[in-house]
Model the fold of this input.
Amino acid sequence: MKETIKKAAAALFAEHGYAGTSLAQISEKVGIKKPSLYAHFKSKDHLFECIIQDAFDAETKRVEAADDLYKLLESYLFLYEEDALFRFLLTSSFFPPDFLKKRILKKYDEYLQSLEEKVKMVLPSDSVHTEDAAIMYTIILDSLLVELCYGTRERSQKRLDTAWRVYEQAFMKGQKKR
Amino acid sequence: MKETIKKAAAALFAEHGYAGTSLAQISEKVGIKKPSLYAHFKSKDHLFECIIQDAFDAETKRVEAADDLYKLLESYLFLYEEDALFRFLLTSSFFPPDFLKKRILKKYDEYLQSLEEKVKMVLPSDSVHTEDAAIMYTIILDSLLVELCYGTRERSQKRLDTAWRVYEQAFMKGQKKR
DNA sequence: TTTTAACTAACGACCGGTAGGAAGGGAAAG
DNA sequence: CTTTCCCTTCCTACCGGTCGTTAGTTAAAA
Done:
């Protein structure tokens, strides 16, 4: 049940934001009455925090498990379409409720850092500009996430293709092409 | 007075979102009572729409007046810090209230298109990959806006530097460096 | 027998919005 | 020049509705 509630709430929070989603909407989507939510979560804030913790954990695992930089980028295309929890993470990071702003910023920082380390690990150590490569990678990722929020799937794919061509040319010369 | 209200509302909407900002907060910030707002705007929706129209108009003008691609990117760094109306545009585009989602998406499309045309105008016509250059430019811009929302000023600047170095190398070889 | 998870009822606070009137300024009429 | 009138802009008081949350109860599970 707890998971059912989190799932429904994540979808609603992702679409309408924290302030724009009411407990009445959540309970209705789950199929229970509003006060019943309090048997599982002690407040709206608490519910939100539980979900975002799940979302960060899942995303961290994904990044840690990745071994191909391009595939990691590409995976976000599917993820955005099919995983409400990921959409929740995205919109809540772009626009967190006030009471979580600081903590989310911190987590985003850690996330960026883990991404940079991942890039430095995967890229050949004889590359001269690994730091630049890491920054450029986060640039591509962030722009991809923005495009996913707005554009069509096709346009996101095109953006990824173009960006990756430039990226390979700049930082992976001589490496095996994917 | 109308302008005073719009200014205060824009700052609040930018920080807390549409649903997270109440008319009571706005009127308090302005220094009048809540019902007085209705002498100037017929509803909360209407107020929001007026502001976002202003914001889009201002941003469109800025892009049209630009003649240097790098300077245009750089200008966003200042803009984000000093212009509440721009921050409003940013957050409202990332996360629009439901009743405006469609219209804002459309405006964003037009905005991207005007940006692409701007890039094609400014870049030398003998460039082979003007289309790629245009897409890559929007990638850099979007990622810069994301970083502005989260990171420090310095990190945004670094991101811009790195991205621009790659961009010049890929699309402006042989052109005068800035 | 204790715990858990659901319910109904209701709370105070706040929401966007309305009614109706007071104060002030500017233009028109005397 | 004064008076009247109107329009704008603000106010106080209040509306119905929704918000997140609590109290108290019930029924089934452990």
In short: The CA atoms of residues 126 and 172 of chain A lie 10 Å apart.
